[in-house]
Design goal:
The chain is an alpha+beta fold and 462 residues long. The protein folds into two domains: 33-97 and 200-369, Rossmann fold (3-Layer(aba) Sandwich), CATH 3.40.50.11780; 104-193. It is built from eleven helices and 21 strands. The chain has helices at 53-60, 75-85, 158-168, 204-214, 229-245, 261-268, 299-311, 335-343, 371-388, 398-417, 432-436, and strands spanning 33-37, 47-50, 90-94, 104-108, 114-120, 131-135, 140-146, 149-155, 172-174, 188-193, 221-228, 251-255, 277-281, 284-287, 294-297, 323-324, 328-329, 347-351, 355-357, 421-429, 441-448. The chain has a nine-stranded mixed beta sheet, sandwiched between helices. The chain starts with 32 loop residues before the first strand and ends in a 14-residue tail after the last strand.
Length: 462
């Protein structure tokens, strides 16, 4: 049925359906995490959406052995903490300093002449763990074994084997097969090029490139895997500013570069003071997947764990006193050190009935430094934008503006019922001049709910 009256020529009943009153606000994402880091596998500077740690390993490869020197790979190791914290929808980007080199194997005939090549699906050292075996005979058989999984391909000649690999391999991409080589018999393999250059020594230049890939994604929380706040703050702040201007608001969780309080204040606190940045310290203890030993990971990995935990909470639920699934802390601060860090806007992790967030605050110095308040405001902005956009292009009259107000009123009333807001005021107006210019003015006053950070007890003893 048409929603607008057609040309009234034939006798009959013509109905005009005005659907403005049916417009509502749909679901709003609040816990999507965007993360950028280095890995030994996967496409570079492309977003991959992950729903589990198993997917992370399949996409970006295993973590390498943890070392306090050099540049250990950061993406998979951080994703382990994100999922451990409770993250469920992750937008991950692999970055690399330089161009990762893919492993290349050449299939040859009995005279060592090249028939076609096999190139690993992505650059990096991951493909060096693939065992490739070619058995010659009336029917050549290629076996590829990787992490306990086997791919087997057979062909009576180069053309048949080439086609089988092209159709079924998840590990290699086959190169061009010359027509002159189609009937030749595959006989051996030559490991022409080894996979190398994981680009582990990524800098803020690569970080910026990775964050740019996340700019248009529906991300609520950003993590710079393996980057300390001192190094990453400027790049992350530029990203947060740009995305806020584009209506894609998000928060960043960064970690301290070093645990020592003096270093935190000198390096990290001095580098950032922003309503959208959470600074987490100290580092955490975790089991290294290669050595199987417990190691101390720096603050950036604590930030990944906290980001995962934050993603599980509704916007109005405070991170204060919430447990995080850390195995331990690399440093246990004294009460005096905790007080010093809190006064410098650091979100401290401490040991108390497990590992907990001491106080859920951002690095902002203003009145709205609670993380929950910032998330409530972002949620309100997203909902108002989502509820208002369908009205763009409709008539700018009293009827339509009333429908717009009803849509937004329903959304904000829901926030009050959900205890995100204590109250609000809302008005949708337009002067004649604003009507002429296509402007409908929405004026709101919101009172977000604050969480309890302290309880003062007065005891009268008699």
């Amino acid at each position: 049925m048409s929603e607008s009256i057609g040309e009234m020529i034939l006798p009959g009943t013509y109905i005009d359906v005005r659907a403005e009153g049916l417009i509502g606000v749909g679901g709003i994402a609040t816990g999507n995490i965007g993360i950028v880091g280095t890995a030994n596998r996967g496409p570079v500077n492309e977003v991959r959406i992950l729903g589990s740690y198993t997917e992370a390993l399949d996409t970006f490869g295993d973590a390498d052995e943890w070392k306090t020197t050099g540049n250990p790979l950061s993406l998979t190791r951080s994703l382990a903490q994100v999922f451990k914290g409770g993250g469920s929808t992750i937008y991950a980007v692999r970055v690399a300093n330089g161009t990762p080199v893919a492993r290349v194997i050449t299939v040859q005939d009995a005279t060592d002449a090249s028939l076609f090549t096999l190139t690993a699906t992505s650059g990096g050292t991951w493909a060096e763990a693939i065992t490739a075996t070619l058995t010659a005979g009336a029917t050549a058989k290629l076996e590829l074994v990787f992490k306990g999984n086997k791919e087997v391909f057979e062909g009576a000649d180069a053309k048949a084997l080439h086609a089988a690999i092209a159709a079924g391999s998840q590990l290699f991409v086959v190169g061009t097969l010359a027509a002159a080589n189609e009937i030749k018999a595959p006989a051996k393999l030559d490991n022409t090029t080894a996979g190398s250059n994981n680009g582990a020594n990524a800098t803020v230049t690569q970080l910026a490139a990775g964050l740019a890939q996340l700019a248009t994604q529906t991300v609520n929380i950003v993590v710079a895997a393996g980057f300390g706040t001192k190094q990453a703050a400027g790049t992350v702040l530029a990203h947060l500013e740009a995305t806020e201007n584009d209506g894609m608001e998000r928060m960043a969780v960064l970690g301290v570069t070093k645990d020592a309080v003096a270093d935190v204040i000198k390096d990290d606190v001095a580098a950032v003071s922003n309503k959208r940045v959470i600074l987490v310290g100290p580092g955490i203890k975790a089991t290294d997947p290669v050595s199987n030993l417990q190691v101390d990971l720096p603050g950036s990995y604590a930030a990944a764990l906290v980001a995962g935990r934050l993603s599980t909470l509704a916007p109005h639920i405070s991170l204060t006193n919430k447990d995080v699934a850390a195995d331990g802390l690399s440093t246990e601060y004294t009460r005096a050190e905790q007080k010093n860090l809190l006064q410098n806007r650091v979100m401290v992790l401490h040991k108390h009935f497990g590992i907990r967030a001491l106080k859920g605050i951002t690095t902002d110095t203003g009145a709205f430094k609670q993380i929950s308040v910032r998330r409530i405001v972002d949620y309100a902005k997203a909902g108002v934008r989502k509820g208002s956009n369908p009205y763009i292009g409709k008539l700018n009259n009293v009827r339509v503006r009333a429908a717009l107000k009803a849509t937004l009123d329903g959304f904000l009333a829901g926030m009050v019922l959900d205890e995100m807001l204590t109250e609000y005021t809302l008005d949708v107006t337009a002067t004649r001049a604003e009507e002429i210019n296509g402007i409908a003015l929405v004026t709101m006053t919101l009172k977000p709910t604050f969480s309890i950070d302290y309880i003062k007890v007065i005891m009268n003893l008699q």
